[in-house]
Amino acid sequence: MHTENKDRIQFGTKLIHAKTDIGSHYGAVNVPIYQVSTFHQDVEADNRYDYSRSGNPTREALEQTVAQLEGGSAGFAFASGMAAIASVLCLFKSGDEIIVSHDSYGGTYRVLTQLFSRFGIKTLFVDTTDLAEIEKAVTPNTKGLYIESPSNPFLNVTDIKEASAIAKKHGLITIVDNTFMTPYLQQPLALGADIVIHSATKYIGGHSDVVAGVVVTASEELGKEVKFVQNAFGAVLGPQDSWLLLRGIKTLKVRLEQQQQTAEKLAQWLKEHPLVEHVYYPGLTDHPHHELSKKQASGFGAIISFAVKDEEAAHHFLKTVSLPSVGVSLGGVESILTHPATMSHASIPKETREERGITGSLLRLSVGLEEPEDLQADFAHALESSLISVKTP
Ligand SMILES: *Cc1c(COP(=O)(O)O)cnc(C)c1O
What we know:
Blueprint (H helix, E strand, L loop, with lengths): L2 H6 L2 H7 L39 H13 L4 E5 L2 H9 L7 E5 L4 H10 L6 E5 L4 H7 L4 E7 L11 H10 L3 E5 L4 H4 L9 E5 L13 E5 L2 H14 L5 H11 L2 H21 L3 E5 L9 H7 L6 E6 L2 H10 L4 E2 L9 E3 L11 H6 L6 E5 L5 H20 L2
Parallel strand pairs: 2-3, 2-4, 4-5, 5-6, 10-11
Antiparallel strand pairs: 1-7, 6-7, 8-9, 9-12, 11-12
Bound molecules: pyridoxal-5'-phosphate.
């Protein structure tokens, strides 16, 4: 396909035909896995690759692909989502303050409060869904705004456009963790953010078979800074795993479409179920950020959180369901059910966790590609059998 045509193609086509300048050998339709650590250097030529930490063709094909999907100028692949986050945090220095969504991923909270704090980087956790809170937290030392939207586990939505505008006014770098939405449903750079991060372990890979992270920068300058950190810090993604992501990405749209449809059905059904206390899903009209979500994303995603009566009922549910995997992670082809208090958010101190409402009765569901009727039947059984087990002495 001619290059000019590739610039105009729609997202779904881009997933299949993203433009990379990694040469194809023998007409291969996929980028080969360049399982090499080092490259022979022609002393008389300008060698594109020398060592795979600094650059590897398979990783670069992935990096160019994600940059296009997020509409940025440069992409980077890391050994995990946390490696991507930590590498981006390396852009800050001692004395800098970062404003961070108070209900962001547990690992993000941990790396900031227990690791980057050691290097004099100060974090202020605020409710970024309240724009006035962001404005109030800015001091002369503030250098960054780190948003996770929708957040985990309550799916709270921050207005990325307005928050980025506040950040820009104060000269802060806006970073958005876009893991839950994917570039198919939400494009933070187009809304004014400077850097997008993904745990590619989740929807980008999509098959629960790889741990990876990606970063995309809006500007070339920030791209150069991240490139420097990537090479200096060295938390790069290997060629095999890069290839797995390239493979997973091709079905991102079809997976998300289907998972989202099922999520909408299940959220509605759970909401009406007498044994469910509350359902958190931006697609429900009673979700506090339903309208904002409609405005800034093209879909509501496929993660639902819901509360049952108490911790005992939650445990019963986890023990009784048969289809979902029970554990951490999300975004796979199989449904994954998490107990945030003891799994994904266990790294947050109990007191802080409970202040944020993450109690033992809360469950989080990443909706997979199973048939919605089968999931519903499985959940109905798990919910209703708790009544029986409670009654039996
Ligand atoms: C999983 C996750 C991370 C961390 O990514 P890893 O690949 O597990 O290192 C960061 N942010 C969000 C929102 C996540 O769900």
